Target: HAD family phosphatase
Amino acid sequence: MAEAVTLQAVFLDLDGTLVDTEGFWWEAEAEVFARLGHVLDDGHREVVVGGPMSRSAGYLLRETGADIGLTELSTLLNEAFVARIGRGVPLMPGARRLLCELAAHRVPAALVSASHRTIIDRMLDSLGPENFVLTVAGDDLMRTKPHPDPYLTAAARLGVDPTRCAVVEDTLTGVRAGEAAGCRVVAVPSVTPIPPAPGRTVVRSLEEVDLPFLQALITESQGSVH
Model:
């Protein structure tokens, strides 16, 4: 009898996936640009959601023509965001339960985010650092999402096969990063819709995601390979 294919690790995004902070980022961006004399149109929100700081800040600079450098702008955005999360970070429905379930069954969980290291470390206070065996931040690597590097790095550091790992993401940017790394991706859309695609599972909430659900996805995907 063939040995069952097991789930080796779960890689989880942060903003909009585990914590309800995507709105915080937009508020921070709107506040900073207002101070610079520019009103951000809501149409920009879908473009910047889920992206790394450098891409989002660069895009908003080009669109507004604000008179500020990218590095200085990134610093101001981070400061405005940190001020908001300092008042508390709400967890997404089902996040606490999923993290506790993975920990109870000793399934390694890694936090893989495009956010900067200082922000990840601050938010770990709300999530519980003991729930993660590894964290990968956007400024830890030369290339972040939508490149596969963050997820490939997490897999390499844990010594696991990416094709036997599940990724949980809320944006298309993150979903594409997980898929490019060869992981099985679960999309939990937050701000913008994510279309279904082969090898991609779209759910409405983390409350639909548990360990048997993730294990079944890996078993199914591995079975389709052979």
Observations:
- The two ends are 15 Å apart (CA to CA).
- The longest strand covers residues 165-169.
- The beta strands are 9-12, 109-112, 134-136, 165-169, 184-187, 200-202.
